[in-house]
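User: Show me a protein chain along with its predicted structure.
Assistant: Here is one chain, sequence first, then structure tokens.
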Amino acid sequence: MRIEIDDLTRPAIHALLNEHLAHMNQLSPPEQVFALDLSKLQSPDITFLTVWDDELLLGCGALKALGARHGEIKSMRTPASLRGRGAGRAVLHQIIEIARQRGYDLLSLETGTHPEFSPAHRLYKSAGFQESGPFANYKEDPHSMFMELRLPEKAV
């Protein structure tokens, strides 16, 4: 398994992002779908990561800069047929490491409340995330769960 910072040009990534958007639109009302499409993920404030097993795309995730010391996790996705291989956990840990290297104090995320999001909730909690309130431009809503991870300063 290898993790890459990705330029979002490969067709496999486009297919996974399309799967992600379609699934999010099935689970949440349209105004509560905060998943980013390809063009929004190509923003300079977003670092997009992919996880591969040789040429097989196992998953993706992104880190969006919200400020000098705050980041947001976006677009965490593993293809439905490839879940259970550890790709989600691997990309999450890589995102957390990048955030630490950048000197972030806080990582936040928004995820859904539909029961199908339960595996994601467990993954985030296992990495130390705790439920929190809305951040950035998000608003309190029954379809959204907000989580955060405080990143302690590295010892010198």
